[in-house]
Amino acid sequence: GDASKVPALFVFGDSTVDTGNLKQRSSLSLLMTNRLPYGRDFVPPGPTGRASNGKLSTDFLAEFLELPSPANGFEEQTSGIFRGRNFAAGGSGYLNGTGALFRTIPLSTQLDAFEKLVKSTAQSLGTKAASELLAKSLFVVSTGNNDMFDYIYNIRTRFDYDPESYNKLVLSKALPQLERLYTLGARKMVVLSVGPLGCTPAVLTLYDSTGECMRAVNDQVASFNSALKASLASLASKLPALHAMYGNAYDLLLDAVEQPSKYGFKYGNVACCGLGRFGGSSACSNLSNVCFSADEHVFWDLVHPTQEMYRLVSDSLVSGPPSMASPLNISQLIA
Fold it and tell me: What are the TM regions of this chain, as residue ranges (predicted)?
């Protein structure tokens, strides 16, 4: 397919795709992504609000689509509205309560902001032209990670729900929001899985692992992912105009953690930036140990992948087999 057929890229979700929205909002100096070493491999080097050493998967995706990385939807700016927007915010999830402590922007609020944008676009372009623009655009949703982290770290949540009922709760909140995106005009939608959180340096450290991924955590995530994939497929059959793709970042990351050398990495489960055995005992800051070459690591910090890992994620979404991008990859989706 011809990548230039896609006029705009719209992004929603959490820190896996946040390019600076939370940075605008958060007064918390806790937000390390506002400082080096975050962004140290970015061009030009410096923190952008991305939770990595450089680019995220959606930055690479924008390059493939021959578009600029979408402007942040929560920054005051009007230019480039027809090339897309990024509404993602670190710490957020499908549930409104997820990340409330960090004053994040939940998916529902991200969709509110998008709805406003749709209305103003319809006013300036006319309803028909606006809906044609949206129908040709690509929509990426990457979230759910923090909903799952909330279950791992929050005793209250675990007291209230067993893993299966919690997964059901998150899914019951996820689907109406994906359907709302369709109602607002999205026709080409890419929804990413939750990652293998049981392999993150943070979780290995929390459970005092010897290096094995935490099975119970990954099982819960995998079960959520398969329900998400199935629900997405049924949503697409209910809405014939919707082309919905499930992006299986979970299996790619899991494989990279377990067989790093297959992907050109040296370290599968050790963060480039952090403290302790897996770099998972502290947040990444200028007080941490920072590796020389982030490209040798799957993880940049205690939970987030490196730019190099994000590049592989983007590649798998764009041109991966059905096991990675289902039922179609992005190249096929936009053909």
Answer: none
Strand order, beta sheet including 188-192: 71-72, 84-86, 9-13, 138-142, 188-192, 243-247, 325-326
Averaged pLDDT for residues 106-132: 94
How far is residue 335's CA from residue 332's CA, in Å, rounded to a whole number? 5
pLDDT attached to residue 79: 59
Helix count (H) and strand count (E) of the chain?
12, 9
CATH of domain 3-333: 3.40.50.1110
Q: H/E/C letters for each residue in 276-321?
A: CCCCCCCCCCCCCEECCCHHHECECCCCCECHHHHHHHHHHHHHCC
Active-site amino acid positions = 15, 301, 304
Q: Which helix (H) or strand (E) holds 9?
A: strand 9-13
Domain segments of the chain: what residues?
Answer: 3-333
CA pair distance 85, 239, nearest whole angstrom: 24
pLDDT tens digits for range 150-174: 999 999 999 999 999 999 999 999 9
Backbone angles phi, psi at 192, to 5 degrees: -90, 150
pTM value is 0.97
Distances (CA, A) of 77 to 8, 71, 141: 16, 8, 22
CB 189 within 8 A of CB 242: yes
Place of tokens 């770099």: 279
Please work out, in degrees rounded to the nearest 5, the angle formed at the alpha carbon of residue 239 by the alpha carbons of 234 and 244: 65
